[in-house]
Amino acid sequence: MAEADYALLAQREAIRDLIQASGALLDQERFADWIALFAADGVYELASDSPELGQPSPWLDLDRASLAQYLAEMGERVRYRDRRLHLIATISVQIEGDTATAESHVVVFRTGPEGATHCDAAGRYHDTLVRQAGQWRLARRRVTLDTRVHPGHHVPL
Amino acid sequence: MSLTAPPPPLGIERPSLPETHYVDNRIYTDPTIFAEEQERLFRRTWSFVCLASEVARPGDFRTTTVADVPLVVVRDQAGVLHAFVNACRHRGMPVVRDPAGRCAGFQCIYHLWTYGLDGHLEGIPYPEGYRAVGLRKEELGLVPVRVEAACGLVFVCLDPTTEPLRDYLGDALAFLEQPLGERELEVFHYLVSEIRTNWKLRTDNTRDYYHTLMHAFNRKTSRRDGRSPYRWSVLRNGHAVFSAWDALDASYETAYDRAGFAARDTHRFPGLRTNEWVLAAIFPNLAINVRTTACRLDRVVPLAPGRMLLETRGIGLKDDTPEVRAARIRDYNVLWGPVGRNQPEDVVAWEGQWDCFNRGGARYSIFAREEDGAPFDEESVRTFYRTWERWVGRRAAAPEEPAAASSPAQPPASARGRKRARPAAAGAGGASRHG
After folding, report:
1. Model confidence over B297-326: pLDDT tens digits?
2. Neighbours of B77 (CB within 10 A)
3. pLDDT tens string B49-69
4. Among B21, B87, B200, B399, which lies 20 to 30 A Cα-Cα from B98?
């Protein structure tokens, strides 16, 4: 295999690592570390499928600063003491120079305070990434959920 | 009047309060009462189903259920709204299987019977097979249901004897006509939440501003110094409205800057002033919440004593520019969205209460605050239960017993309402409303 191919594989692996880390950091509620995966002008967008609207139903669309404010308030909130587990399968990574796009399938399990586990949500990550100082960062993460019946949760998906 | 469940063993002492100021928690858990609510309440009152703009064009339809009855609302070619039971008259297969869409007519997938948008039975494959028994197509149209609209909101009613919609909504209309009825509305967010609780614990929550002490967002933005210009207006038919309707300053209650947000002083809903807020609780199961720039509309759908759907719409104005719409969506979602600040907190409370009631851990709930209509006053909840008693026929505080024949369910028109003229200096939000 040519050296350039190894380099490309290494970049793809770095992007896959970032995507896996994005799920694990949310599960561990390490919100500052999760936000650090975004570029300074990065954006997070979450929407669910909605045949009722005929277009996706928007749940959240925040820049990095607003996201940081939202997550910094987490300790003030009344919350279930539950745990979540992201399972992420990245199905494509396309790199062009210092930008890339990636698509992943995402399933999130929720274990409630009583210990029972159920599937909380299923959907996709549509990521646009930029390489800054040799590190890949999320320029935009758009989460589209197939799940459209949901009780709501304070932690993004 | 027997109940399904025996009384819980703990906490059986009645509160030393007027009987109007507490309820027996078995009204939330008892299967007999749940069935009676479906039959006596939801089959007889007006139920919100969708915005008129969701069925704006000929052929637009929207499906829903009311009292567990599957319905479809559709606009015909002449622009007339219809509602039908969503069931083919042949074998009962739903004739519409999508939640929303547009069609030229309805065709049952099972044996291909077809219906017009006005519900008439149009076609039967191989009709000659019915000739011997004289089947009459004109008797087998889709079963019609009453449908009426007000302020851009479409309601249906399964009971032919219930008063017309505008009479049913009564004084609540005065609060809604300007923000919702002046310009065409559009749904930008739609979510269904299935929640493990009784539907009335959600409607209690809408009418109980006292509970906002739970919400970090409200603790920051709401002032608690007793000077709020907001008041509850308790209206006929169990409706209640929280507003600063006749106050000169509507911005005092909600200091968004204290939670890190900009004041809501642009792209306001018609008639609303900076930071102004109107919350209308429409009996039995509709909440209309307009916080200056965005509207949340909640319909509660009971499924079982301990299971409900919360059907939530985020609403803007049809002619919003893309920039204004994006701002409305942001304002909506940071507070009300499924990953917003308040709904996940409310769910913890609703499910916790129901679990406790269902295990017999608490026999009574108290709604006894009297503060002359001030935000924490709970007359808005009490009027819900006086109205509930009238429809269901049981006493909320003693559900084994029938409601009193002369139950004071109906406040006289405007007796505690604020159906007064709005101050002339209504601010930059728009012209004064008629009362």
Report:
1. 999 999 999 999 999 999 999 999 999 999
2. 12
3. 999 999 999 999 999 999 999
4. B200
Structure-block tokens of residue B220:
């920051």
Tokens of B382: 């009490």
Smallest Cα–Cα separation from A127: which of A96, A156, A94, A98? A94
Nearest by CB to residue A51, choosing from B98, B188, B214, is: B98
Concatenated DSSP letters of B18-64: -GGGEEETHHHH-HHHHHHIIIIIITTS-EEEEEGGGG-STTEEEEE
Q: Are strands A135-145 and A38-48 parallel, antiparallel or unpaired?
A: parallel
**Which residues in B326-413 belong to E strands, given as ranges?**
364-366, 394-395, 398-402
Strand order in the sheet with B114-115: B106-107, B114-115, B121-123
Chain A residue with the nearest C-alpha to that of B325: A58
Pick from A61, A69, A79: CB nearest B344: A79
CB contact under 8 A, A152 and B337: yes
pLDDT at B407: 52
Q: What are the residues of chain A with a beta carbon less than 8 Å away from any beta carbon of chain B?
A: 46, 48, 50-54, 57-62, 66, 69-70, 73, 76-80, 148-157
A122 Cβ contact list (under 8 Å, min separation 6): A105, A106, A107, A108, A145, A146, A147
- Rounded to whole angstroms, the Cα distance separating A104 from A92 reads 7
Q: Please, are residues B295 and B314 in contact by the beta-carbon 8 Å criterion?
A: yes
**pTM for the full predicted model:** 0.93
ipTM of this predicted complex?
Answer: 0.94
Q: Is A126 exposed, middle or buried (0-12, 13-18, 19+ CB in 10 A)?
A: middle
For residue B311, give the chain A residue with the closest CA: A149
Give pLDDT tens digits for B189-203. Answer: 999 999 999 999 999
Sheet containing strand B47-51, edge to edge, reads B47-51, B153-157, B144-150, B81-85, B69-75, B60-66, B100-102
Query: Are the C-beta atoms of residues A84 and A109 closer than 8 Å to each other?
Result: yes
Contacts of B296 in chain A (CB under 8 A): none
CB contact under 8 A, A153 and B194: no
Token pair of A134 as six digits:
């040799």
- SS3 call for A38: strand
User: Which of A57, A145, A146, A149 to substitute to test the interface with B, most B CBs within 10 Å?
Assistant: A57
Pick the closest to residue B315 from B346, B344, B336, B343 (CA basis): B336
CB contacts of A112 in chain B (<8 Å) are none
Helix (H, G, I), strand (E, B) or coil at B416: strand
B337 contact residues in A (CB cutoff 8 A) = 58-60, 152
Residues of B in contact with A50 (CB under 8 A): 190
CA of residue A67 relative to chain centroid, distance:
13
User: Which residues does B372 contact at the CB level (< 8 Å), separation at least 6?
Assistant: none
What DSSP line would sit under B373-392, residue for residue? T-TT--HHHHHHHHHHHHHH
Q: Would you state the structure tokens that stand for residue B392, as one six-digit string? A: 């269901």
Tokens linked to B409: 């369910």
B344:A48 CB<8 A: no
Average pLDDT over residues B89-100: 98
Query: Which among B191, B194, B348 has the least Cβ separation from residue A80?
Result: B348
